[in-house]
Amino acid sequence: MELLDAWTGAQPTKFGMEERALQRVAQLARHVCANHGNSNFEKLHRLEDPFRPVNWTSCRVGDVEFEDILYEKSVGEGIAKITINRPQCRNAFTVKTVEEMERAFKDARDDSDVGVVILTGKGTEAFCSGGDVGVRSREGYVGENRIPRLNVLDLQIQIRRLPKPVIAMVAGYAVGGGHVLQLVCDLTIAADNAVFGQTGPKVGSFDAGFGVSAMTHMIGARKTREVWFLTRLYDAQEALNMGLCNTVVPLDRLEQETVKWCREILQNSPTSIRVLKAAINATEANSDAQAMGGNSTLIFYATDEAEEGRKAYMEKRKPDFSKFKRLP
């Protein structure tokens, strides 16, 4: 006991300082907790009624009516919403669908009152299931003019270069080319029924452009290999944990939460947001890599291997890739 007293008595300054330091930390913590959300700065920038109803009005661009999409703008708020309107095929896109989206995105860019764009799919079963395999040929996706192409690659670049944030509002399936669309958006709000994944290798397809570069930048090379090589599907929580989406909310609150994020963005400097978007995108692979990936896809579509994947999908059977050699 004497030894203990002597030892503790020899260190009064050290223990006293530590105790005072701990008390000070506790005091600061209590102060922060008590004043969290109550600073003048936070009060000044806090949204008033962030979940108030939004009033959408239907829009048209030029004289031609949209058939494959819905295009709307919020009244007096600066939010545009583009909805892929093909729920009968899980919002799979055709050449025409992409062309209509391009027109809508161009209008949203040119409209100085619009500050943020929502991209979504009609209904709750799918955000977008990718390209409509039913109109895929050996040269690409065929439109009404019978010219095959991969015009979704142009749409991807358009979304990336749009000087305004684009938010993917995802309910249900975001797979294949639809998953790549949500990847090239700036933010993704997912409903709790959302499903994410790449299915291309199952149907003789792939996206070696942003489908690889954007995903690798988000979730790392190892996970990107897993997503593409195994073609698994991931639920909303798994996607959130991987970094494929920003947040997950109940399905009935999906649009409400997405609009709230839009309203928060719209409070900020538009030029700051514009430059930051470009700066973040500049840290990833550029459009030259995307062009290389697109060219590879076009070449691949002309092969019997890709055709086996397409035909198997159309015939509702499992593809047989065993007849194609795995060359050294």
Calculate the mean pLDDT score and round it.
Answer: 85
User: How large, in whole angstroms, is the Cα Rg?
Assistant: 25 Å
- Describe the biggest sheet? 7 strands, mixed
Low-confidence stretches: 1-10
For the biggest β-sheet, the strand order reads 1-2-3-4-8-10-13
Shape: globular
Count of helix runs: 13
Share of helix among residues?
40-55%
Overall strand count? 13
Q: How do the helices and strands follow one another from N- to C-terminus?
A: HHHEEEHEEEEHEEHEEHHEHEHHHH
State the secondary-structure class: alpha/beta
Strand content: 15-25%
Q: Between the first and last Cα atoms, what is the distance in angstroms?
A: 78 Å
Write structural notes for this entry.
This protein is α/β, with parallel strands linked by helices. It has helices spanning 2-9, 12-35, 40-45, 95-110, 152-161, 177-184, 210-219, 221-230, 236-242, 254-266, 270-282, 287-301, 304-314; strands at residues 56-58, 69-74, 79-84, 116-121, 126-128, 141-142, 148-149, 166-170, 173-175, 187-191, 195-197, 233-235, 247-249. A seven-stranded mixed beta sheet has the order 1-2-3-4-8-10-13, sandwiched between helices. A four-stranded mixed beta sheet has the order 5-9-11-12. It has a two-stranded antiparallel ribbon with strand order 6-7. Strand 3 (79-84), helix 4 (95-110) and strand 4 form a beta-alpha-beta unit. Helix 4 (95-110) runs parallel beside helix 5 and helix 6 crosses helix 7. The chain is globular. Residues 1-10 have low confidence and may be disordered. InterPro entries: ClpP/crotonase-like_dom_sf, DHNA-CoA_synthase_MenB, Enoyl-CoA_hyd/isom_CS, Enoyl-CoA_hydra/iso, Enoyl-CoA_hydra_C. One of its GO terms (molecular function) is 1,4-dihydroxy-2-naphthoyl-CoA synthase activity. This is 1,4-dihydroxy-2-naphthoyl-CoA synthase.
